[in-house]
Amino acid sequence: MSENYSTGIAGLDAILGELEPGSIMLLTGPPKAGKTVLATEFTYRALQAGNPCLFIAAEYGYRDLQRNTMAFNWFIQSFADKLHVIDLPTGLAGGRPQDSGNVRYSALQNTTDLMVKVGISTRSLYLEEGTMVSVFDSASILLAFNPPKLVMRVLKAYNDRVREAGGIALVVYTEGVAEKDIEDEIPGLFDVHIHMDGSVMSAVRGGEGMEAP
Amino acid sequence: MKKTYIPKLDDLLGGGVKEGASIMFSASPGVDYEAFGYQMLNGRLEEGSAGFIFTNVGEPESIIYEFRSYGWDIESRIENGNVFFVDGSSPFLGMPSDQRYTVNDYSEIKDVVLRAIDDIPGGVGVINNLSVIIDYLGNGETLEIVEAWNRRASELEVNLVYLFTEWDYEQELIDRIRETMDCVVDLRTIEERVIIGQGFMVANSAWSEPPSTMVLFFVVQPGGVKVYVPKILVTGPYNSGKSSFVRAIATKSVSVDRKALSAFPTTIAMDIGHLEYKGFMADIFGTPGQERFDMILDVLSREAVGAFILVDSTAPETFARAKEMIRKTRAEAIPKVVVANKQDLPGALSPEEIREKMKLGAEVPIVPASVTEGWGIMEALDTLLGLLYGG
Predict the structure, then answer these.
(1) What are the transmembrane regions (chain B) (predicted)?
(2) Number of folded domains in chain B?
(3) Does one domain contain both B266 and B311?
(4) B361 touching A (Cβ < 8 Å)
(5) What is the pLDDT of residue A129?
(6) Which of A63, B1, B14, B224 sits most deeply, having the most CB atoms within 10 A of its CB?
(7) Bridge partners, residue B187, by sequence
(8) Do A107 and B57 touch (CB under 8 A)?
């Protein structure tokens, strides 16, 4: 991404300002704070603005993502050529979905395979478009299937891949999933930390905090 | 010696792996490496050996599905009892497991895998994945367990194949793990901003002295691990010296030249060369420089992993065309070196003047050269290989 980036979400842009290419954001909050809605709107606005997007669906599958966005009249299906999805939970149900087009299936407990697929997608988006946006919803679900240290390693590797491709990423994390020491460590991996508590959204970037109702 | 069934790897190891030796495929995050372990197991099963797969990255059903997608029949061999799973995955997903061995808790892992090794004398066991074991058990305990497995495997002439992802572990830990293995094969990404390819190289082997050759590979379904000889592109405007350059760096080369109506020979189709240098093999393709052949540039440049852009240092009016050819051959996205040719001629611009006129970023090396006088050529080759393989 050669130019600075605006998310297209008025409330978020008001507190974030413009993001530099390679900015990796963490979005935290308690359950039901609206993190997934914000993450899907972030995806939709990116696609609408013509940016390709890599969406890692960890908490729900690709079909649920389509359904969730449709409820808001955001038809991500119409951006099929710009949207790459890595679907982690669908295989758990016992089915063996075939990779098709821009949708790849992996497994929540196979972090190595996940990184292979992240690499394939960042490469093809970078080569085709020279720019990308990525959303990881959510990192907390990985913690249910993997040792916390491994999840930290995966997040670092994921951030590196997005930064290399000059992309912008938003990683969702639900508070209270990991032990406190891991939870304290997670924000250190990110450039911007956005927090939602249901009524107030705040952000910290480079040590400076901003708040919006 | 036992074959690995990975193309080229047996050659690099002097015929294969020694009976009872351990081998670790150590991969950077992002390298497609599971197929290495599974391909080795599949080959050995076809020979009639017994085997097992320890898994903590996917339940056995998923792995059977993977084998099927590679075109390898593991199901009938499971039915015959030639191969079985040590399931360290299903219990952690809350799923029942009916495998011969199940790891319900990581405290059991050492003994359960030892029993599995006892069941397959002369066979092969795949451990997928060592890194997850480290992150569950911690460094010291994992090392002690791996040493115990390797000792038992060696006694029973079982080859243990470890799949290991080199996440951001401390170097000391990585070194100690590597020391416990009889053979380590590194699987690396080749990057130019993003991953553009993958290669393997034998880092060490207890029974042979492997050459430091990086073998590029890709994994296909069906098929498994396939090696490919990379393609290096030589492009640039008309009369910049591409054909001479290909001839100069290639051990063998063919040029499709024709003396057209004028006295100036020019390449009307392409130059093809083969290069063997510092353990690295590549095919070289030189593109024609004239615009009327641009329609074939796309075909010629497909699958290229690196490019030389030849420019005539005395002809700045051709630099725009050189930039255009970088774009048309997709060389923007792959490692590339600009060869500032004809430096021996009067009026030649310096590499920095060329950089300024072509508006090239500092990340693109410009190597001064005179192909006719024979200098700068190997420097250009070393520079490109350095970009490709960090050497």
Answers:
(1) none
(2) 2
(3) yes
(4) no
(5) 82
(6) B224
(7) B27, B200
(8) yes
For residue B257, pLDDT over 60 is answered with no
Question: Does B325 lie in the same domain as B275?
Answer: yes
Domain limit, last residue, from B222, B238, B254: B222
Q: Do A123 and B168 touch (CB under 8 A)?
A: no
B58 vs A110: CB contact, 8 Å cut-off?
Answer: yes
Residues in B closer than 8 angstroms to A156, CB to CB, are: 167-168
A89 contacts on B by Cβ (under 8 Å):
none
Q: Quick one: B311 and B166 in the same domain? A: no
Residues B153 and B246 in one domain: no
| Chain A to chain B Cβ contacts (< 8 Å) | 86
Asked whether residue B86 carries a pLDDT value surpassing 70, the answer given is: yes
- Give per-residue pLDDT as tens, A71-87: 888 888 888 889 999 99
| Residue among A107, A126, A154 whose CB faces B193 most closely | A126
| Overall average pLDDT of the A2-19 stretch | 88
Q: What is the DSSP letter of A152?
A: H
Establish if B106 touches chain A: CB-CB under 8 angstroms.
Answer: no
Cα→Cα distances A61→A39, A58, B66, B101, B298, Å: 15, 7, 20, 31, 37
| Residues of chain B positioned with their CB less than 8 A from the CB of A116 | 30-32
Quickly state the pLDDT bin for A213 (edges 50, 70, 90): very low
Tell me, yes or no, whether B57 and B189 share the same domain: yes
Q: Are residues B286 and B171 in the same domain?
A: no
Which residues 111-140 in chain A show a CB within 8 A of chain B?
111-113, 115-116, 118-120, 122-123, 126-127
| Strand pairing report for B265-277 and B224-227 | unpaired
Stretch 19-38 of chain B: residues touching chain A, C-beta under 8 Å: 27, 29-34
Searching chain B, which residue's CA lies closest to the CA of residue A105? B62
Query: What residues contact residue A148 under an 8 Å CB cut-off, 6+ apart?
Result: A178, A179, A182
Cβ distance A166 to B129 less than 8 Å, yes or no, reads no
Please say which residue of B172, B193, B222 terminates a domain: B222
Name the pTM for this structure.
Answer: 0.80
pLDDT (average), residues B168-178: 95
The boundaries of the domain holding residue B190 are 7-222
Name the percent of chain A lying above pLDDT 70: 94
Burial per residue of A147-162, b for 16 or more beta-carbon CB atoms within 10 angstroms, e otherwise: bbbbbbbbbebbbbbb
CB contact under 8 A, A109 and B89: yes
Is the ipTM beyond the 0.85 threshold?
A: yes
> What are A141-184's pLDDT values in tens digits?
999 999 999 999 999 999 999 999 999 999 999 999 899 999 99
Strand partners, B26: B164, B186
User: B197 to chain A nearest CA, in Å?
Assistant: 10
- Flag whether B1 is in a domain: no
Q: pLDDT class for B265, splitting at 50, 70, 90?
A: low
* Alpha helices (H) in chain B, listed in sequence order: 9-12, 34-47, 60-70, 75-79, 109-118, 130-137, 139-155, 171-179, 242-249, 297-301, 319-328, 351-358, 377-389
Residues of B in Cβ contact (< 8 Å) with A145? 92-93
B300 pLDDT higher than 80: no
Q: How far apart are CA B94 and CA B97, in angstroms?
A: 9
